[in-house]
Amino acid sequence: MKKILFIDNTAHHLLGQLHLMTAFRNNGYIVEVIVPNDKKYYLELENSGIVCHEIQIDGKGLNPFKDYSLIQNFKSLFLQLKPDLICSFTIKPNLYASIAARQFNIPVIAGITGLGTAFLKQNLLNYLVVKLYKFAFKQIGCVFFQNQDDKLAFESLSITEHAKYAITLPGDGVDLKKFSYVGLVDSPVTTFIFSGRLLLDKGLGELVAAMKIVKQKYPNTKLIVIGNYFFANPSSISSEQMQEWTNAGLIEYLGMVNNVFDIISGADCMILPSYREGMPRSLLEAMSMGKPIITVNSIGCKDVVEDGVTGYMAKVKDVDSLADAMTKFIELSFDEKLEMGLNGRRKMEQEFDQQIVINKYLDVANQLLHAKE
Q1: pLDDT tens for residues 248-265?
Q2: Can you give the C-alpha Rg of the chain in angstroms?
Q3: Which of 12, 116, 181, 226 could bridge 41 with an S-S bond, Cβ 3.0-4.6 Å?
């Protein structure tokens, strides 16, 4: 049987690919993972029956000594585990696993889940990351993108010119059964929900500022925030700031939760004003459940919403525009909100079914492995 290694920078993020790993296992592949051990989600991966191998990945920028060490660690693991194929996700695994795999002629499928902070502005970091991508992807098997803008960005920079396949997927898709339709409940309190890493780049600062404006006119409005701190990221929000917003009555912070479905079920609208995304899973899951969404006209986010049909689209980094969108939603009748949610569910069924992504991964993996023989 062929062995596939899944590699990611956090066990929590990789757990989101469990459906994909399960599909490969059901199709006769041996699936193992390489990921940092966080003692929690790493254990969940092991409990799902997947063999896990620990690795240390420093998420704090580009340190040439640590990154060179990471490449060597990947090489050692590849030599020991002898995979036939690698599926990697997020920036450092995509870069350094691809470089390490080249020595052993192992085909790699790299999943671009978003271009990250390095692509938000033209600077030295952006220059270095582009150079690294070009070097790492010289012999890449396949690059999967979650939106067309990211694919075009890589093509314009000649990063994927040597890739056998460069394909745009509907994000990770959404599990339509797990995130089943629940619709809305008519309530005097309007509940918005934000789900994601606690970063300024996610637009959380603008969202709280907009919430302050909205609550002045509509005090029966609340904002639930779920997600984890990510202090390695330069745009990370501090725990002190989160506490300050909580004390001011602007947010209810629930931390990391396992019952995401239950939390979303009690909300009226999912809101994500992120500066840039691959394809935001939180919006897909909420829409699958029949919840309207509010997002912004940024890469990744704009591909999910149909303005006025499945939700509203505000301007990027614009507090007033975001507050206006929230106000418009509040002022809709219950039936209008319900229709928005239904439109979102239909969109997920037609365009974002998780099975579309699974089938494409299986197809490309088969082609890369067949070409290797």
Answers
A1: 999 999 998 888 999 999
A2: 21
A3: 12
